[in-house]
Amino acid sequence: MYAIIATGGKQYKVAEGDIIKVEKLNAEAGSTVTFDQVVFVNNGEVLCGEALANANVTATVMSEGKGKKVIVYKYKRKTGYHKKQGHRQPFTQVKIEKINA
Q1: Cα distance between residue 63 and residue 71, in whole Å
Q2: DSSP-derived secondary structure letter, 13
């Protein structure tokens, strides 16, 4: 059984017991989070659309952190213009506990 959930502007294919990294959530480590935006469920039969009005996915927050550093480098020739900037995207690591469909 698996589901496709939407959170943080992205979609994730999850099954019970999976550990995934999603965009940063406002939740403490050890707390429970519910994802209500379920796009698709496959539990032997395919469910999508209106059939998923009451579906949700429950997960436990494991940790928070930052991803790998991405370097942005701007350069204009002949002018001596160089600009280097780094960015680390924050994420929340969650463990999928239950898919309710």
Answers
A1: 25
A2: E
pTM, 2 dp: 0.83
Give the HSE-up count for residue 60: Cα atoms under 13 Å, Cβ half-sphere.
8
What size, in residues, is the chain? 101
What does the DSSP 8-state code read for residue 30?
Answer: T
Using the CB atoms, write b or e for 30-54: b if 16+ within 10 Å.
Answer: eeebebeebebbbeeeebeeeebee
Average pLDDT over residues 67-93: 97
The predicted structure's pLDDT at residue 47: 79
Of the candidates 8, 9, 97, 18, which has an alpha carbon nearest to the alpha carbon of residue 56? 97
Using pLDDT thresholds of 50, 70 and 90, give the confidence band for residue 101: confident
| CB contact at 8 A, 59 and 29 | no
Count of H-run helices and E-run strands, the chain: 0, 10
